[in-house]
Amino acid sequence: MHxxxxxxxxxxxxxVSLTSGNDVADALExxxxxxxRIDMDRNVAQVLAGLRPDVVFNALHGVPGxxxxxxxxxxxxxxxxxxxxxxxxxxxxxxxxxxxxxxxAGIRMPKGTILDSESLYAADPLPRPYVxxxxxxxxxxxxxxVTEGSNYGNPIARDAKGPWQEFDRLLAEPFIKGRELTVAxxxxxxxxxxxxxxxxxxxxxxxxxxxxxxxxxxxxxxxADIAQYMLDTALRAHQLLGCKGASRTDFRWDDAAxxxxxFVLEINTQPGMTPTSLVPEQARYVGISYEQxxxxxxxxxLIVKGALx
Length: 309
Fold this sequence. Notes:
There is one protein chain. The protein is of the alpha+beta class and 309 residues long. The chain has 3 domains: 2-83, Rossmann fold; 92-108 and 177-293, ATP-grasp fold, B domain (D-amino Acid Aminotransferase, Chain A, domain 1); 113-174, 2-Layer Sandwich (Dna Ligase, domain 1), CATH 3.30.1490. 31% of the residues lie in helices and 23% in strands. The protein contains 9 helices and 12 strands. The longest helix is centred in the C-terminal third of the chain and has 18 residues, at 224-241. The protein is globular, with a radius of gyration of 19 Å.
C-alpha cells in the first residue's frame, strides 16, 4: 500500500505540519507501508500524478490543506485521502460558518461579530474583555485577548501589534473566563477530555507546540457530568459537520456556571500529529499507540472512498 504524506506547504503552521508529517511517515514505514514524503508546493498535483499513491495522508495545517482546497484537488484526481472532505473543511475552518451549522443544533458557542479591522481604531466592538481572531486560521494563530489593562490602547492603536495588522477582517467574541479543555474524536468515538494549563499567558500557538509551555492533564480533573457532556458535544459536532478521521473540539468552561458555562470554541479537522499533540496523547490514554492511530486513520480513508471492502 503506497501512502503519500502531504506536509509543509506555505501556511503559518508550516513548521508544525512538517513535524506532523514526518512523524506520520515514520510510523507508516514501521507498519510496512510504502511512503512518499511530499513537502507541498504549487506543483503538488503533478507530483501526485507521477507517484500515483493509493491514498494521501493529509498532514497539512492551515490554508490550503485545511480549507477544502487540497481536498477538492484530490477529489478531482480521484485519490483517497485522510481526514475530512472538501465541504466539511470549507465550513470548519471558517469560524462563522461553523457557528451557523452548530448553534441551531443546540451546541453552545460564544456569540460573535465580524468586523473590518480598520474599525478597531475608532472603538471597541464589544465590552472588554473580548477576543479577536482571524476567520479562517487554526492553532490560535493571530488571536488577541483585549482587556482593560492591555497595552493595545483604548481604542486599539494603529501601531499596536496584533491580528488587525495582518487580517482585513476579524471575528470578535466575548472572552469566556475559566478553563481550557479539548476532546479528540476518532471515527465515531470521543476519546477523552484533556485540560490545558499554559505556564503563562493563554493557549496560543507557542503554548500548543513548544514542549513544556503547557501542562496537559489527561484525563481532565472535572466532574463526570461535565466530562460526559463535552464528550457527547464533541462527537455531535464531529458528526454534524461530517468530519472524517480525527477531529478535535476545543472548549472553554466557566466552572462557576456549571453546565451552562461550557462553550465550544472551534472544531479542528486537521489536528496536529506532533509529539506534543493532543490527539496522539488522548489515543495513548485509551490504549491506541501512535502507529495504530495512524493506521486507523489511513484505513478509514480507504473505506470512505471505497478502496477497501
